[in-house]
Design goal:
The chain has about 500 residues and is of the alpha/beta class. It folds into 2 domains: about 270 residues, Rossmann fold; about 190 residues, Rossmann fold (3-Layer(aba) Sandwich). The protein contains 20 helices and 18 strands. A 9-stranded mixed beta sheet has the order 3-4-5-2-1-6-7-11-12, sandwiched between helices. It is globular and about 65 Å long. The two termini are about 20 Å apart. The relative contact order is 0.10. The structure holds adenosine-5'-diphosphate (ADP). Adenosine-5'-diphosphate binds next to α1, β13, β14 and α14.
């Protein structure tokens, strides 16, 4: 199967969140199953700074954007460590910037133009490169117009019209909504600007376009696939998702089991596996405590959290329990985001010297060292489409405490006498999005932590499970097959 994957970020080129991990890993996993994937991305400034081997494909095109026409080019490379072709859309006015989507405090105000350009550039590139994809796999709002283009402006271009489309929602909280006059930038017919298609409360919505026009829709866990069909999690699109529920499925993300494997990670103080987790983790914890300026105490549990500092991640709940937690434990946080939480973390670190360390920024290497050195990982998310950090934690024998939502509910098994007995227990879960419920889960974990024999079983249960991309890639391949079969039947 020839699959074109389109994403606005992918590891190792550019990353702000989980989408990048998926877009970097899925093509490799598809290739090892015998498919022929190709990946399209914008050429951001940071991509060029990586110094990868990228060649100009000697193909230029003009994209109409309202009244003007903007030139773009294609650079060609490979996904490192694989034969998967990567095509980068070169357009310095739009992509030679520090950020991917904004400055850190605000989105770029030409994001509509930037991503209309990107999406049309991808379709032009497919045509000009002579690709014949069976499937065009789009991801999140930055690629939501592509399924609409495939069925409208490009319906007479055989190489594109023959493709089936899959649209994957990685986070329904980000819709890509722009004022209605931006319809003119898209080149699409104003007739599509109606409540059944591209219009969303009087505005243009890229996410909605993907949900309406794609042949199939997927999201990154079965529980999130159900949740987004409710008004609580549906971001106003739950009605549309309910109407398409038979074409919607949830596929839990895998993890890169080479990159996130404590037996191989070069940055760890000591590498370990399921057999040596007790000693290995103790050494990594000692290193982390020293590195972070925490008291070097093996007898105190070390909690961690890594990720965007955003209300989605349950920071209001964490703020309420943090002081109580730090009476009997240590906490290390790595993240960047909302200034309110930067202040909260700075203040916590000052109030609890030697007990709390906060790294405000993005640091891939430290993320690995924290996953290996911490005892427990906190993820009290209000919603979580899939979540990767609980999977990285499980792979490192770091026991996750999660709210039972989205992918967290699909991957973390609560510790009870029954799940301990049948060997499935791997973490702690709570249901209500309240500080009390979180605290009760923390207390359960703290009391079990002292029982070393049971704790080691818990760590090993997490480490023993298969979170590789192979399983997820097979589910994507089945979905591609279903789309291609329906597409052929319709032709
Ligand atoms: P989301 O996509 O909602 O941000 P996920 O858990 O799905 O959350 O994925 C987040 C990814 O980004 C993980 O790989 C996580 O380790 C990484 N990450 C987030 N913030 C940071 C940070 N400050 N430093 C290093 N890695 C980070």
């Amino acid at each position: 199967m020839d699959v074109v994957l389109v994403a606005s970020e992918a590891v190792p080129f550019a990353k702000t969140g989980g989408l990048a991990d998926v877009a970097g890993a899925l093509p490799r996993a598809l290739a090892s199953l015998g498919h022929r994937p190709a990946l399209f991305l914008p050429e951001y400034r940071r991509v060029r700074q990586l110094g990868l081997d990228l060649r100009d494909a000697d193909i230029a095109f003009q994209i109409p954007l309202g009244a003007r026409s903007v030139e773009g080019r294609i650079l060609r490379g490979r996904l490192p460590g694989s034969e998967v072709p990567v095509y980068l859309i070169h357009q310095p006015e739009f992509f030679d910037r520090d950020g991917l989507y904004g400055t850190g405090t605000a989105d770029y105000d030409d994001n509509c133009e930037r991503f209309v350009f990107f999406q049309r550039a991808v379709l032009e590139s497919i045509r000009m490169l002579g690709l014949r994809p069976n499937i065009i796999h789009c991801n999140d709002w930055q690629t939501g117009l592509i399924p609409a283009y495939v069925r409208t402006l490009y319906r007479n271009v055989p190489a594109i019209a023959a493709a089936g489309t899959l649209y994957t929602i990685h986070n329904l909280a980000y819709l890509g909504v722009f004022w209605h006059w931006d319809m003119a930038l898209t080149g699409l017919d104003w007739q599509l600007f109606n409540w059944r298609q591209l219009e969303f409360h009087g505005k243009l919505c890229f996410m909605k376009a993907g949900l309406v026009f794609a042949d199939r829709i997927s999201t990154v866990s079965p529980t999130y696939a159900s949740e987004i069909q409710t008004s609580r999690f549906g971001s106003g699109l739950d009605g549309l998702l309910r109407a398409r529920s038979t074409e919607l499925r949830g596929i839990v993300n895998g993890i890169d089991t080479e990159a996130w494997n404590p037996a191989h990670e070069p940055m760890l103080a000591r590498r370990y596996d399921i057999a040596t987790v007790e000693e290995g983790k103790a050494q990594c914890k000692e290193w982390l405590q020293a590195h972070a300026g925490l008291q070097r105490r093996p007898d105190i549990p070390l909690f961690a959290q890594i990720g965007r500092l955003d209300p989605q991640k349950g920071w209001e709940l964490l703020a309420e329990v943090a002081d109580r937690l730090l009476d009997s434990a240590q906490l290390i946080v790595l993240g960047a985001g909302h200034p309110r939480y930067h202040t909260l973390l700075d203040e916590l670190a000052q109030r609890h010297p030697g007990r709390c360390a906060a790294y405000l920024g993005f640091n891939e290497e430290l993320a690995h060292q924290i996953e290996a050195g911490a005892d427990l990982f906190l993820m009290p998310s209000l919603f979580e489409p899939c979540g990767l950090n609980q999977l990285y934690s499980l792979a490192h024998g770091t026991v996750p405490i999660v709210r039972a939502t989205g992918g967290l509910a699909d991957t973390v098994v609560d510790t009870t006498p029954r799940t301990l007995a049948d060997g499935t227990a791997n973490g702690f879960r709570f249901d209500e999005p309240t500080a009390d419920a979180l605290w009760q889960a923390i207390e359960r974990a703290l009391s079990l932590w002292r029982d070393r024999e049971t704790w080691v079983r818990l760590m090993r249960n997490g480490m023993g499970a298969d979170w590789s991309w192979d399983r997820s890639a097979r589910e994507y391949a089945t979905t591609y097959d279903e789309i291609a079969r329906t597409q052929r039947a319709a032709c």
